[in-house]
Automatic annotation (TrEMBL):
GO terms for molecular function: ribonuclease T2 activity; RNA binding. Signal peptide: none annotated. GO terms for biological process: RNA catabolic process. It comes from Pseudomonas bharatica CSV86. This is Ribonuclease T(2). PROSITE patterns: RNASE_T2_1 (PS00530), RNASE_T2_2 (PS00531). Belongs to the RNase T2 family. It comes from the Bacteria. PANTHER family: RIBONUCLEASE T2.
Length: 328
């Protein structure tokens, strides 16, 4: 009976010409599905390419609602901007909804993230082939043979918000004040810390302060642990063992599928190159880490429907892996 009342109310609203159907951004909120429903690209035209539906028990971050007195919510059903679909609000339970201020997308407000990105640097490839590499003190030390880095290092752990694209960051928050024990813990995995903390300070001010679940020591220690877990994984070892040579893009993704027991796991990993040289691996992670400290534990089976696009993604089948201290 309640459901019929909601439908009747929604139908009545649809007949009122003065009620705009303008979508408004949500700065926070989740939608937990309670009944199977179609997921539309356009709820007005009832278009549903691929026949996508949402299933009871699944929970999604809300990107938009169709108006502040909403009957439709727009959710990310697959992991990318083009995977945003409209679902009738009556198909689930809305929790924690916050509407962004008019004209704002809340892209610099802490704790509005809906996912994370872990960026792991292949330091030799970055130092030798990225235009920003040569001036870094750790890269200069590697070139002189004073420092050897033959494992993956931490670029950053980035809270992410799909509605903001790549612009979620630089939130207000505390300054970086790491314990010395944490600095020592980070150094081997973020080699700029051998020389100063400017890069770490940049990562904290741009990304780390956009979450408040962890202080700076906890944040960097978790990020390092996640880097270690990838470095020691079959896919990470495959790259490390072929330093000075090349790897197969296909074999890299096959190793990820084997380790995680699901071919879709490869969609969460992206190889970033300068030319045909690897310089970074980026991993798409869910919003919540659930107390896990390994990539396999954090990901579980939370895989993207398809890999996100990036213009710097390695395109060739053979990817060259620079070795520490080697040029060309």
């Amino acid at each position: 009976m309640a459901r019929l009342a909601v439908l009747a109310f929604a139908s009545a609203l649809a007949l009122i010409p003065t009620q705009p159907a303008l979508a408004v951004d949500a700065s926070a909120g989740s939608f937990t599905v309670t009944q199977r429903c179609e997921a539309f690209q356009s709820f007005k035209n009832q278009t549903n390419p691929g026949g996508v539906s949402v299933q009871p028990g699944r929970s999604y971050a809300i990107a938009e609602v169709n108006r502040e007195a909403y009957q439709w919510v727009r959710i990310d059903v697959g992991g990318g901007r083009k995977d945003l679909r409209w679902v009738a609000a009556e198909c689930g339970r809305v929790e924690g909804l916050q509407i962004a201020q008019p004209g704002a997308r809340a892209c610099s407000v802490a704790d509005q993230y809906d996912s994370h990105v872990l960026a792991l640097t292949w330091q030799p490839g970055f130092c030798e082939h990225d235009r920003n590499g040569p001036g870094k003190p750790e890269c200069q030390a590697m070139g002189k043979g004073e420092l050897k880095v033959d494992h993956f290092t931490l670029h950053g752990l980035w809270p992410n918000k799909q509605a903001c694209g790549i612009d979620y960051g630089s939130c207000a928050g505390p300054a970086l004040e790491l314990d010395q024990a944490t600095v020592d813990y980070i150094k081997p995995w973020m080699p700029n810390f051998h020389y100063d903390t400017r890069f770490g300070n940049h990562e904290w001010k741009k990304h780390g302060v956009c979450q408040t679940a962890m202080d700076d020591d906890q944040y960097f220690r978790l990020a390092v642990d996640l880097v270690k877990s990838f470095n020691d994984s079959p896919a990470g070892a495959y790259i490390r063992e072929n330093a000075g040579g090349s790897v197969s893009r296909t074999q890299f993704y096959e190793k990820l599928a084997d380790e995680h027991g699901n071919k879709a796991a490869a969609n969460n990993f992206q190889l970033i190159c300068t030319g045909d040289y690897l310089k970074e691996v980026r991993v798409a992670l869910p919003r919540d880490f659930k107390g896990e400290r390994s990539l396999k534990g954090v990901l579980g089976q939370d895989f993207l429907a398809e890999r996100r696009s990036d213009r710097s993604e390695c395109r060739g089948e053979r990817i060259r892996i620079e070795a520490s201290g080697m040029a060309g």
